[in-house]
Amino acid sequence: MAPQDVKTGKSDNINRKNTLPDLDGKTWLRYSISVWDDLAKNTEERSIKHPAMFPAALTDRLVEVFYRRQKGMVLDPFLGSGSTLCSAYRFGIPSVGFEIAPEFLELAKKRLDQIPGDRSAYPRLIAGDARSMEEYLPPESAGLCITSPPYWDILRQRRSADGKPLRYYGEDAADLGNIEDYQEFLDSLSAVFRQVYSCLFPGAYCVVIVMDIRKGPRFFPLHMDLTAVMQHLGFFLDDIIIWDRRQEYNNLRPLGYPYVFRVNKIHEFIMIYQKPKKE
Fold first, then answer.
1. Which residue range or ranges hold the DNA methylase N-4/N-6 domain (predicted)?
2. How far apart are CA 147 and CA 75, in angstroms?
3. For 202, how many CA atoms within 13 A lie in the half-sphere containing its CB?
4. For the segment 27-53, what is each residue's pLDDT rounded down to a tens digit?
5. Where are the domains of the chain?
């Protein structure tokens, strides 16, 4: 699928004045706790038909913490419902996102259009595969990446934890969520984040939200395997935050009972990678 630039709002690498609030000591301390359990979707977000969106409260916080004293745009190679770009736009920070599903691209645009703000910072929405990123973005033009890639093809698997119906992204062959082989999936992630690495300024953070996966008897530690991929590309792992989502799971079952003990996964990993600073 050839990428198309849907929005032509300027998102250059100039350090624009933004509206990021200063973090006081109390807020800094709260954000520094390694488990975040105080983030929830608002009423509007709960009504949005996207299989794996995360709340603006999460992306707002990540922008507040990791864009500080940065320049350039905020980047999301897996745009989805647009939460990352919505947060950047609210703070007056230029941003760009890639999305292959037309319905989610339109959803993101509708959400952005509801936000009052400086139109000169309106995000660029690019309809296409993030593996074509270098066709659009110059090296060292982004000050932060916040994203959440497909969790392999897990959205196509039966939900044993809460029994909810399947909701997946679509049938596009370019969708990483349709890849059946795990190593091929990791290789595709590598192809995306190799270009993310090039686009980021030295010292910039790349924050990736992922969940580990179980398929029957096999467990796939995605957060560990992704870290191996990222380190191979040149990133280093700066830290990990646990996003506790138990408040969203109200129909949990005793998995495997009474034969094989299985863990109900109600958390995700906020993996904090950083591109090394220039010496």
1. 26-110, 144-279
2. 8
3. 4
4. 999 999 999 999 987 767 666 655 567
5. 4-11+22-274
